[in-house]
Specification:
Chain lengths: 388, 370
């Protein structure tokens, strides 16, 4: 039964590399597994997702009730644009990690993990896991919090269940047995040259003024840039704090993408989503500007500080990923039913027309001359959201 | 007569039960074989659903493989059937085959199964660390130990901090999104929100520290938290404690008292600290090395509210120079480690020390060697 395979004990994070490679961060086994999906993919035209109650449907297909399902992550295949969702099915010793693919027909197709060609790499545990003792159970664990692929390297960050520090690994792919893994301690400045250890919650890698940087959101709220060039094995690296996201913000994801606005101009942007708030949308230019300045070393304040950004009404996005030039795809929690929906958002607009009832929708409404633009983009959104 | 049964091995670990249809007539079986059904057609003929009530709402059938083996039709789900869950199997020949095979003698057949629930004892909270009753204002984390694995993803809904007036405090614990469990899923790490603990951060300035020196609090774990079998905790758990001033000075090895054992015994090496250390790091950050440099095998005991560490060797101590290898990652309960305090002035020139070493010269015991 190769759908249940010893290749994976758990799934914390999934992310695509280049050329059909799906990386899976397995915190329980302490492994990164790379699955080669090239046999299963062909480039197709992407269409916006409108699949409601997708968590319910995944549970049904996997043969369990909803309370037995934990959704772990979402990744959109960069070539086929299909949605890959990682879940834990069952609890405790019954738990089985599963990856399902959702195609544009809405079919939920579990991956036969045992049969997919794969390679794997063990992440050296934060501690001496070969420490022999009568009680041999390793009690320290590393929980992988994010992974991103950049330039033939996989960047992995994680949080220990014991020591409070950040570990960032740079792993070259294809995996080699030699140490291309780098363990780096990250510090960030608080104020008056005080620094502190902190764990990274989410990150992306992007070029700022032609230099690659890790842009990281920390668990205790700072937004930090770290030049990739400084990330060498064993290095003590200081990140530059360019923002402090403050009270009540639990950052969930950071994604970096290109988008086209309605005039056809191309923009490079970063989106940071939060657990209970709307999201922050940055132009990479604004991040670059903040990065030029002094970091928030001498800041002691009461306010949220961040590079210039737009607050976009994307709340409840449990997981988000870039879909294509025009769309983001997300698993969004429906506030009323509690279900998860797999839906797309049009870049530049960042809301769904079908979330609202406005006067345009009511019977008897007539579009006047001044509504021409609104009518055009509403018709577009209607079509994209499956209402024609 | 048509029958649908659960079949296959009941292997507890990964074995899947399958669903078996028996009692089909030979002509029916032949017909099925010649039809060469697609996956979708099989799912129309012989779908399995989660649940036991036939709902009018469209449900997706359980994923698996279908086969005809001898005189049976078998559905093998991709994933094991779970204890306590209900499944419904439907066999409806009329969906695939028309008359003369689809006669009123072959009814639409639907049957429900429940996989037996697992018998288990109720789960309890067995211990919380740090175990002391007086904790510093800048305490960083708690470890909560359970007698058996708990459901993940809901921890912060069930862990509360109460002040001495009985009010629950808000925004005390850090939401790490992914919960931090040990591999057995019975030890959970919960951080007090470092944004409130650390100085200089917005949250600290707005809200201050959650724990205030001089006050008393109670850590409450409510019983509505289900274990992996879906049962509530046996009872709620409470840990009452009071708060002393913040401890900001980093731990210093020179402050430790080391007690050497006697050779030819298995008495422990003991270290007495001046304050409580992190329990998990105490179990993993200090090693004993033999005079030849090899790792010494033994058992570790932590006592006196995590202020004492003891190492009991598997084999007797020999004469020679043993070493204690202490990782600089060892933290006290406020997060200060041997490398640096939790918050420190930056010093790019400071050398990063990975391990500290303390030598223990064990000399022949005049009493024993004679």
């Amino acid at each position: 039964m190769s759908y249940v395979s010893s290749k994976l004990l758990s799934i914390s994070v999934i992310t695509f590399g280049s050329e059909d490679i799906l990386f899976v961060g397995d915190s329980k086994a302490g492994n990164i597994v790379a699955f080669d999906l090239s046999k299963f993919s062909s480039e197709i035209e992407s269409i916006p997702f409108n699949f409601y109650d997708v968590d319910q449907k995944i549970a049904e297909v996997l043969g369990v009730t909803l309370d037995q399902l934990s959704i772990k992550d979402l990744a959109i295949h960069p070539k086929t644009k299909e949605a890959y969702i990682a879940v834990h099915r069952g609890h405790g010793s019954d738990m089985v990690p599963v990856i399902v693919k959702i195609n544009y027909q809405g079919d939920i197709l579990p991956l036969n993990i045992g049969e997919i060609p794969s390679t794997q790499l063990s992440i050296p545990n934060l501690v001496d896991s070969d420490f022999e003792c009568w009680n041999k159970v390793p009690i320290r664990t590393l929980t992988i919090t994010d992974m991103k692929f950049w330039n033939d390297e996989l960047f992995v960050c994680g949080l220990s269940n014991a020591d409070f520090s950040s570990t960032l690994y740079r792993i070259s792919y294809p995996f080699t047995n030699t140490l291309s893994i780098n363990s780096i301690e990250i510090y960030h400045a608080v104020h008056d040259m005080l620094e502190t250890r902190a764990p990274i919650r989410a990150m992306t890698i992007l070029n700022i003024n032609n230099e690659p940087y890790v842009l990281a959101a920390y668990l205790c709220t700072p937004l930090v840039t770290i030049p990739v060039a400084q990330l060498k094995n064993g290095a003590h690296v200081r990140g530059k704090t360019i923002g402090e996201l403050g009270f009540g913000n639990v950052p969930l994801d950071i994604i970096h993408f290109h988008s086209q606005d309605l005039q056809g101009n191309s923009k490079e942007q970063v989106l940071i989503t939060h657990k209970t708030r709307g999201a922050m949308l940055f132009d990479v230019k604004a991040i670059a500007e903040s990065n030029e300045k002094e970091g928030l070393n001498s800041f002691v304040g009461f306010n949220v500080v961040a590079p210039q950004h737009m607050a976009v009404p994307l709340a409840g996005l449990v997981h988000v990923d870039n879909q294509d030039e025009l769309h983001l795809a997300a698993l969004r929690r429906d506030m009323e039913t509690g279900r998860l929906n797999l839906i797309s958002f049009r870049k530049g607009i960042y809301f769904r027309l079908s979330d609202f009832v406005s006067e345009f929708m009511l019977p008897g409404f007539e579009y006047l001359e001044q509504h021409k633009h609104a009518q055009a983009f509403q018709n577009m959104l209607r079509k994209e959201e499956g209402f024609v | 007569m048509l029958k649908i049964n659960l079949g296959g091995s009941f292997d507890e670990l990964k074995g899947a039960q399958n669903f078996v249809v028996e009692g089909l007539s030979d002509p029916d079986l032949e017909k099925l074989k010649t039809l060469n059904l697609t996956q979708q057609e099989w799912q129309t003929l012989f779908p399995i659903y989660v649940g036991h009530i036939e709902l009018s709402i469209k449900r997706a059938p359980v994923a698996g493989t279908y086969s005809i083996q001898e005189s049976s039709v078998i559905f093998l789900p991709h994933y094991p059937l779970l204890p306590g869950q209900y499944y419904q199997a439907i066999f409806d020949f009329s969906k695939i085959v028309s008359a003369p095979y689809n006669t009123k003698n072959i009814p639409r057949f639907a049957i429900s199964f429940q996989i037996p629930k697992r018998q288990s004892l109720p789960t309890t909270v067995t211990q919380v660390y740090p175990s002391a009753d007086i904790l510093p204002e800048n305490l960083l984390r708690f470890y909560i130990y359970f007698s058996s694995p708990m459901r993940e993803g809901v921890a912060l809904n069930h862990i509360h901090l109460m002040d001495d007036k009985g009010d629950f405090l808000e925004n005390v614990f850090l939401d790490t999104v992914e919960e931090l469990w040990d591999p057995t899923m019975t030890c959970l790490t919960v951080f007090l929100d470092p944004a409130r603990v650390k100085t200089g951060l917005t949250m600290h300035n707005q809200l201050g520290r959650a724990l205030v020196a001089g006050n008393s609090y109670c850590l409450v774990i409510d019983k509505d938290w289900h274990d992996v079998n879906g049962a509530s905790l046996l009872s709620p758990f409470e840990k009452k404690f009071s708060i002393s001033k913040a401890k900001t000075a980093p731990p210093n090895i020179n402050d430790w008292a080391i007690i050497s054992p006697t050779v030819k015994t298995k008495l422990p090496i003991s270290i007495k600290f001046t304050s409580s250390f992190d329990r998990i790091l105490l179990m993993t950050c200090i090693k004993v090395l033999k005079p030849n440099g090899e790792l010494c095998i033994g058992r570790i005991d932590i006592t006196h509210h995590e202020t004492q560490w003891h190492f009991i060797p598997k084999e007797e101590w020999e004469v020679g120079s043993y070493k204690l290898e202490i990782s600089s990652k060892l933290e006290d309960i406020t997060g200060n480690n041997l490398q640096s305090p939790f918050e420190k002035r930056s010093d790019p020139n400071k050398q990063q020390v990975k391990n500290y070493h303390l030598s223990l010269l064990l000399e022949p015991d005049p009493v024993i060697s004679n």
